[in-house]
């Protein structure tokens, strides 16, 4: 059965994540506010909110005006875009994976760890095993995001010991041990 992924944030990061997941045959729904920031229109699926649909690198995203139509959506038809109340969408969709890609630099994210089987926070201010299951710092220097994901799925990430700006950091020795 195809896993369902709900991606919060329709900007360039959320759109890139949704695009990759769709190409890997996940059922993807993008969520944002009815008037999202649109600094990078034509480079993200943001246009679907305003125009009803958007095509990005061969993948079509379509705004869903009725939550009931999500039940009939298959991942093969494209990416669904929703601007509905988030809690109502969450209850209707019941995603397997929730990814917060809103990139809120100056806001503390709410606890989302209970909203899906796997929750992932992209960007600053998330706390692993508190706000989301997995945290991927998108401005991480030295360690690539795909490495963090590979380490997590392989069960290699130890509990973080150092905290700086509410992010879990690893010592150089831990990173060497994880990546080996």
Summarize the structure.
This protein is an alpha/beta fold and 180 residues long. It is 23% helix and 23% strand.
Could you explain how this protein is built, in words?
The protein has 180 residues and is of the alpha/beta class. It has a domain at 4-103: Rossmann fold. The protein has five helices and ten strands. The chain has helices at 12-23, 47-51, 86-93, 145-153, 172-179; strands at 4-8, 27-31, 53-56, 59-63, 79-82, 97-100, 118-122, 134-136, 162-164, 167-169. The strands form two sheets. Strands 3-4-5-2-1-6-7-8 form an eight-stranded mixed beta sheet, sandwiched between helices. Strands 9-10 form a two-stranded antiparallel sheet. A hairpin with a 2-residue loop joins strand 3 and strand 4 (59-63).
Instruction: Please name the CATH topology of the domain at 4-103.
Output: Rossmann fold
CATH class of the domain at 4-103: Alpha Beta
Order of helices and strands: EHEHEEEHEEEHEEH
Number of strands: 10
Counting DSSP H or I runs of 4 or more residues, the number of helices is 5
Backbone CA Rg? 17 Å
Residues in β-strands, percent: 15-25%
